[in-house]
Design a protein that fits this description.
CATH architecture of the largest domain: 3-Layer(aba) Sandwich
Protein name: DeoR family ulaG and ulaABCDEF operon transcriptional repressor
Distance between the termini: 35 Å
GO molecular function, one term: DNA binding
CATH topology of the largest domain: Rossmann fold
Number of domains: 2
Largest sheet: 7 strands, parallel
Mean pLDDT: 84
Strand content: 15-25%
Low-confidence stretches: 63-68
Keywords: DNA-binding, Transcription, Transcription regulation
InterPro entries: Carb_Metab_HTH_regulators, DeoR-like_C, DeoR_HTH, NagB/RpiA_transferase-like, Tscrpt_reg_HTH_DeoR_CS, WH-like_DNA-bd_sf, WH_DNA-bd_sf
CATH class of the largest domain: Alpha Beta
Shape: globular
Number of helices: 9
Domain HTH deoR-type: 3-58
Length: 259
């Protein structure tokens, strides 16, 4: 098992309660105790967790999650202006995958929000953690909107629950539309562990994961892994993707759409 896959599994184990024991990790990971300890040491140095007696816990910052706190990464008001034309085309292509009357989930992001104008008239039921997406859908009389409970992170204008707390409504959807900070051979990545835990909850509830990323997201391969590429069903991007990057996506069994 590769180190990035072990890291993802460790973060998943931490999410429910904020703590995981060495014994639990040994049962989850195909790795020796020494390897697990090296993984935890590395992840602690990266600020992803804290090693404690008997195991590991989420870092103090992740546990606190005060209302209005900022997540790592580019604030929404800045990211919305970056590669805007490409994001608008991606959002339009993503909306075209929706069927009238179905239930979908849309994760917050500067690309996923571009779906909103193209959903009018489809009479969808939409679960979203993004206040920007809520605002975009409110004028659509036939669109029903659900939101989770949790803390509002103002810079991204999204609602996230504390680690280990499942605040999502009882909702299962055929499709999840989500963005990412980076995409690489390791998988789909975000900058902040709180965001990763929230997105994993969405991924686990969806039958189909549809990733919306402009081609610049392939230039970086750093971050906390949300899921492997093998968990993504469809990836929508722009014509700036290179042939090698396209081969990587298709090689993982992902349907690639160029908007």
């Amino acid at each position: 098992m590769h180190a990035t896959e072990r890291e993802r599994l460790i973060l998943e184990a931490l999410a429910p309660s904020g703590f995981v024991s060495y014994r639990d990790l040994e049962s989850r990971l195909d790795a020796s105790p020494a390897t697990i300890r090296r993984d935890l040491t590395r992840m602690e140095a990266e600020g992803l967790l804290q090693r404690v007696h008997g195991g590991a816990k989420l870092s103090e910052a992740d546990e606190a999650e005060p209302s209005g706190a900022a997540l790592l990464g580019t604030p929404f008001d800045q990211s919305i202006t970056i590669n805007l034309a490409a994001k608008q085309a991606i959002g339009r292509a993503a909306a075209a995958l929706c069927e009238p009357g179905e239930g979908i989930m849309i994760d917050g992001g500067s690309t996923t929000v571009q779906m909103c104008p193209h959903l009018d008239g489809l009479d969808l039921q939409v679960l979203t953690n993004s206040l920007h997406i809520v605002n975009g859908l409110l004028p659509q009389k036939g669109t029903r909107i659900l939101v989770p409970s949790g803390s509002v992170f103002r810079e991204q204008n999204i609602i996230l629950a504390p680690a280990g707390e499942d605040s999502m409504p009882r909702f299962h959807a055929p499709k999840l539309f989500m963005g990412a900070a980076a995409v690489g051979q390791q998988g789909v990545m975000q900058h902040d562990i709180i965001l990763v835990a929230a997105e994993r909850r969405l991924v686990d509830r969806a039958e189909q994961v549809i990733l919306l990323v402009d081609s610049s997201k392939f230039a970086s391969s750093s971050g906390v892994i949300v899921c492997g590429l093998d968990e993504v069903d469809v990836l929508i991007t722009d014509a700036g993707i290179t042939p090698a990057q396209a081969d990587m996506v298709r090689g993982a069994g992902v349907r690639l759409i160029i908007a």
